Amino acid sequence: MSNELGLKVKPVTGISPEDETRVAAWINTEDYKLKNFARQALVVNPAHACQPLGAELCAHGFAETLPLVHGSQGCASYYRSTLNRHFREPAPAVSSAMSEDGAVFGGQNNLHEALENAVALYKPKMIAVFTSCMPEIIGDDVSAFIKNARQKGCVPPGFLVPHANTPSFTGSTRTRLRFHAGRHLADPDRRQGHRGALHRQAEFPGWL
Question: Model's pTM, two decimal places?
Answer without folding.
Answer: 0.66
